[in-house]
Amino acid sequence: GSGGDLDSEFHSLTEYLMTTLKDQELTVLMSQMALACKATSRACAKAGIANLFGMAGDQNSSGDDQKKLDVLSNDIFVNALLKSGSCCVLVSEENEEPIIVPEKDAGRFCVCFDPLDGSSNIDCNVSTGTIFAVYEKKTPGKLGSVADVLRVGSDIVAAGYCMYGAATELVLCFKGQSVQRFALDPSLGEFVHTHSNVTFPSGGGKKIYSCNEGNFPYWDQPIKDAVTEFKAKKYALRYVGSMVSDVHRTILYGGVFVYPADSKSPKGKLRVLYEGFPMALLVECAGGKASTGMFNGSVQRMLDLEPTHVHERCPVILGSPRDVDFILSKYN
Ligand code: AHG
Ligand code: MN
Ligand code: MN
Ligand code: MN
């Protein structure tokens, strides 16, 4: 370029989508997704000014008390995805039932999303995010059904998250492609393509474990033993309490993120369709591993799960192979 960072060549998300996907409908879907992320980023930034802190006064199907921004971000994503003309089924953390798009507006894709992840952190300005997974409809006809999203995780064709932090960053991968990273340039309102082929640090990276140790008394013995040994091996504990933030750091710095089953929540807390699966695909595409740990009687690769309910939960052990394998070895 002509020197400095204002290069004449601007590598945008749109450019990546058009040169990589060669699928008009998926490109439009992802452009609408990016628009919703920008609008949600702005809503989070203005929350204190626009009286958007606090509770909406309702609960969602997971029993979470909904924040005003949970509801606002959900409406932003639902409207953007419906207008894409690319979707036939929408599953959101904030909607009890899947949205079946009317045939006249329907497209090939099903999107499962968590519009505002880590929303308990929003009122104290700690980073939050959005998480999404995309399936391609498999049943015949244009009208979608819940069967199009209750399927094995490895059927997912695209996954991503947007982190509303100091920078608004979008991290996504399309099946068979490597993980890509974009940063929102607010002065342009565009996502700039900052990194291609994002991978875990070789060798496992920094010695970091990430979990809510407040649940230690309720974990099974193998998980207790693994965490106790991480301390003995002088690992650092890093826990934001927003899955998007904890996973983003885990992919970039290394280490492991764990939200195990416990005696209070025998299936763990995180939801399969819009938290576990998308993060599992991203982590695997970045060279990491994502497991349920001991679940329904066996230690499973998370993407091998086949959920039976749209808000089903599963335990999550994901991160560098070095650390995930170490934890799973406690079940031998
Ligand atoms: P959400 O805000 O979408 O309901 O998700 C919150 C999740 C996830 O972001 C995070 O990893 C986990 O809850 C934290 O749970 P604890 O507060 O129990 O540690
Ligand atoms: Mn919630
Ligand atoms: Mn969440
Ligand atoms: Mn959420």
UniProtKB/TrEMBL annotation:
Pfam family, one: FBPase_C
Localization: Cytoplasm
Protein origin, superkingdom: Eukaryota
Catalytic activity: beta-D-fructose 1,6-bisphosphate + H2O = beta-D-fructose 6-phosphate + phosphate
Cofactor needs: Mg(2+)
Domain Fructose-1-6-bisphosphatase class I N-terminal: 22-195
PANTHER family per record: FRUCTOSE-1,6-BISPHOSPHATASE, CYTOSOLIC, FRUCTOSE-1,6-BISPHOSPHATASE-RELATED
Protein name, UniProt field: Fructose-1,6-bisphosphatase, cytosolic
Origin organism lineage: Eukaryota, Sar, Stramenopiles, Ochrophyta, Pelagophyceae
